[in-house]
Amino acid sequence: MTRPVPVTADADRLWSTLEAMAALSEGGPGVTRLAYTRLERRAHELFAEWMEDAGCAVRTDCAGNTIASRPGRNEGPAVGTGSHLDSVYAGGRFDGIAGVAAAVEVARMLHQAGVETDLPLRFVAFAAEEGARFGQACCGSKLAAGLSSRAELDDRRDRDGISLAEAMAAVGLDPDAAASAPWRPADWSAFVELHIEQGSVLDDSGVDVGVVDLISGSTRLELVADGRASHTGGTPMRGRADALAAAAEAVLAAERLALDARYRGARATVGRLLVEPGSITTIPGRVTFSLDVRDVDADRQRRAVAEIMGRVRAICLRRGVGLSARPLADTSAVVLPDWVRAEVTGAAGEIGVRYRVLTSGASHDAQMINRVTPTAMIFVPSRAGLSHVPEEWTDPAKLAVGTTLLFASMLRLDAR
Ligand code: HGY
Ligand code: MN
Ligand code: MN
Ligand code: MN
């Protein structure tokens, strides 16, 4: 006998789920729970415990994604939801976790009400979505979508030179198996990821939720400027090959290009810069720095990268500084399918949730999972648009509204 279906998420329970997950952090400001670390696996274990208590069977796939399955009346392609549990360095409590906590709450709402769906439902905690540690974004969902080669797992390395494959093996995963066990599209009917907006459109407009139509692409490179280290006092200014001065010009060249009207919509950022030998009295010999170029237009994104790299090469040539570059990630913008988005906006209409259609500047697991099964995204507001910082905040009531919409959307997708 099914009891009346609760149509609203339990905001307090949802909040304590989020807080319990956010407490799993390496310490220091904000949340630090990096890709393929013991701490990330601990977060997946906690997710698995919660989902077993909510009546799901739980397994971890070869890429380290944890998948909780709830049977329906019939076998068949599942309706899925989920997000990631890793964070950036000193990040916020909501990026990724909000979508996983919402998935847990939906499973609890269904379990509590004894709801029997037609199709099976699956709730996913993705591994290693953030590029903070290895540069590569969406590792777990890329592997699930069959978009990562085994060589990439050896090639991407963290600050200590540990490769993705070595980090996976260190937490008990098999990189060989991970690179050859993609999810089967036939096992899925649709997927909805709830995530914080990481921009300020919802917060500025006061609208409760966003429904995403397009997710930006992202090209990420690691550049190394090789100059000539030498004594800061004994070396005349003329004829120096100062790697940091060259990198500094490169940072400004990237910014200037992204501000150029020809590249309106592109975003270019140097987020990390390492100076060697890093001594006050030595001219910097080598600078290693990142370049992240995002755009909703794949062609403009690649033209922006090409033009920035052309400018950086010219700067280095003029300064007698060598330049090398290696790719870290390269994804194109993804348009999410109308029909799944229509089910989400239809559910919003049914339950009286105000929404607006938004583009995502951030990349997401949904981008990869959309290659497996048609996907939608629900955004909840980020206060002042802040994210990837300890000040990241989403109002508990707004998170509950987004979760209620996720619940209603999944039931609509099940009933199709
Ligand atoms: O970097 C991003 O866009 C996402 O937060 N991983
Ligand atoms: Mn995220
Ligand atoms: Mn993020
Ligand atoms: Mn994401």
Automatic annotation (TrEMBL):
Which Pfam families is this protein grouped with?
Peptidase_M20
Where, in this chain's numbering, is Zn(2+) 1 bound? 84, 95, 195
Binding-site positions, Zn(2+) 2? 95, 130, 388
Q: Output the CDD domains linked to this UniProt entry.
A: M20_bAS
- Gene Ontology MF, one: hydrolase activity, acting on carbon-nitrogen (but not peptide) bonds, in linear amidines
The text of the family note is: Belongs to the peptidase M20 family.
Q: What is this protein called?
A: Hydantoinase/carbamoylase family amidase
Species per Swiss-Prot/TrEMBL record: Actinomadura luteofluorescens
